[in-house]
Fold this sequence. Notes:
Layout: H1 3-33, E1 45-47, H2 55-75, H3 78-97, H4 102-107, H5 126-131, H6 147-150, H7 154-165, H8 171-182, H9 185-196, H10 199-210, H11 215-218, H12 222-241, H13 246-261, H14 270-280, H15 286-294, H16 296-304, H17 308-321, H18 329-356, H19 365-369, H20 374-395, H21 402-405, H22 407-410, H23 423-440, E2 441-443
Antiparallel strand pairs: 1-2
Amino acid sequence: xxxxxxxxxxxxxxxxxxxxxxxxxxxxxxxxxxxxxxxxxxxxxxxxxxxxxxxxxxxxxxxxxxxxxxxxxxxxxxxxxxxxxxxxxxxxxxxxxxxxxxxxxxxxxxxxxxxxxxxxxxxxxxxxxxxxxxxxxxxxxxxxxxxxxxxxxxxxxxxxxxxxxxxxxxxxxxxxxxxxxxxxxxxxxxxxxxxxxxxxxxxxxxxxxxxxxxxxxxxxxxxxxxxxxxxxxxxxxxxxxxxxxxxxxxxxxxxxxxxxxxxxxxxxxxxxxxxxxxxxxxxxxxxxxxxxxxxxxxxxxxxxxxxxxxxxxxxxxxxxxxxxxxxxxxxxxxxxxxxxxxxxxxxxxxxxxxxxxxxxxxxxxxxxxxxxxxxxxxxxxxxxxxxxxxxxxxxxxxxxxxxxxxxxxxxxxxxxxxxxxxxxxxxxxxxxxxxxxxxxxxxxx
Length: 445
């Protein structure tokens, strides 16, 4: 066994020990005083071994990707590869969601008391709802919003309101929307890696983007949809700064970044990833188009009566009125990282280890990035996502539930798997983890 592979395995074992520690310490804290507010720490889930209609399909998809994924990723033409990644990712995500059955796994996920669909009926007059949105955030306010509606800018809820307006109302369509859009994030990441690093690295990462344990929460949570919007914003910016139609792509990237921060307050940290993309680009000119596109969404919401900055200020108060004020920072500041291990899997942990210790990354970063060093470029992209995730962690505004909240950051860690050797073995580890999570636990999403 070579030294690099041994170190990869050490990293994976250390990550597993972190998860085990988070489980044992979390159970002790939860048993003592219930302050974690989750049934199976560090995840919002309950112990419930089960199988379902999606079980055979999930096992079959995993087997096919493990056996054929690495070779097909090398042989397929680029555009068919992108379609294959999206199709396989949807098959994987749908099959995992259906392990819990159609109703529990998909149709009812976004209809519970704290979810977005409960508020759709209150948006019959959208401008009036936006003007009064902030007034219903605090728990003591009249007709206060449910936790997820209150905890996000109105762009999140408005998505499902607009789906309802076009005849796609109800939990089934909402779940289908989140899975269909959410699984395109893998395609966006592949395009960005090819554009900023090189095609061979993107192809090596492709099977890992399909078989990610994160699919457990992409199907079905709205954060999977948020992850895709943020991913396409980054990818369009990458295309623009590398000289591909800088005006249109830059402007559309800005539009999506603007939408991203009106889907989730915490996704302002995607600016860290955007900064890395700008550093890796060959032109700064698209930044002007991106800024022009970015202001569109904030202007529309502000003119309609919702002030993002005021909503966030009130949300901080609401956060500490609820579970956020009870959950101990001292546990979650490290247990959140255990959640991250579970959504990205052992292969990504090993890949990120390789990115961090990449020879020449730190000592010659600026000079080498100007040349054709795809590996170093991919390292910077991955580490920018890791930095954004760590900043979110230290903020204390993401105590628990990060298995879904951090999906927009986690999808940018997955390409680090391109640095690994023995792809099939690592893919088995990814698939087994996802299958165990979905069959042993009943997750909150």
